[in-house]
Amino acid sequence: MALTTRRRALTTLGATLAGAFALPGSQAWAGTPHRGRRPLWNAHAHNDYEHPRPLSDALDHRFGSVEADIFLVGDQLLIGHDASELDPTRTLESLYLDPLAARVRANHGSVYRGWRRPLQLLIDIKTEGSSTYLELDRHLRRFPNLFTRYAHGRVHPAPLTAVISGDRAARIPMEAQQERLAFYDGRLTDLGSTAPASFISLISDNWTQVFTWSGDGAFPDAERQKLRGITAAAHARGRQVRFWATPDAAGPARDALWAELLGAGVDYLNTDDLAGLETFLDAHATA
């Protein structure tokens, strides 16, 4: 199976297989012809809320995943990178949930019109994980038809898939739920976990803590094999892979590292440079 076909199959949510996310073959949620340029499903907008137009900039650049950091303040989920910059008007609803719901309505049930594949919303919890997740769960349930749902062993796809990252304590209440509107972002320590992809849908980790190569010179063969082993192990369990802290300054080193990530089957390329990653992925798609 070609690399791009395999990656597309692994990242498309459809009917479940043995209680996990579906692999290839879901007709209801497969991509359909698009009037414009195809979405860039590999593109992840790191700290998306720091862009001049949160969410809108990422969608204009056709990104397949966006990241929002949340703080629990009272019963509100405020967006920001640290507590000192919080603004009570910048909530998860105002910046993400409400505009995404409006966009899905306008596009007849999808984030990108003509493409029935879910957009990933990675929600990074910055306050205590258990209490913040429980409040987040209440907020997500205000949009029951917007989010991919896990219920009693089955995954039901929807226009958005929420994945919970950040404080690890969120895992406790999530695992206790028989029904939820979110999935868990694991770490490399979870790579061999018996938890199904219907719970740990994504494996993310810090590139600099796992690899020494930053894009300059040749990629050490041992590290290339290690990277490919990670993606193969994750994909074998129906999970996707992302690394943060990859080089993000424009130049040959970043392009070389991005090319290796694509070649190894990494599902999401992490960036703050939306236009730069869009240009890179378009060039590689053409090539």
From TrEMBL:
Keywords: Signal. InterPro entries: AIM6_PI-PLC-like_dom (IPR039559), HAT_RTT109-like (IPR051236), PLC-like_Pdiesterase_TIM-brl (IPR017946), TAT_signal (IPR006311). The keyword Signal applies. Residues 1-30 form the signal peptide. It holds the Pfam family GDPD_2. PROSITE patterns: TAT. This is Altered inheritance of mitochondria protein 6. One of its GO terms (molecular function) is phosphoric diester hydrolase activity. GO terms for biological process: lipid metabolic process.
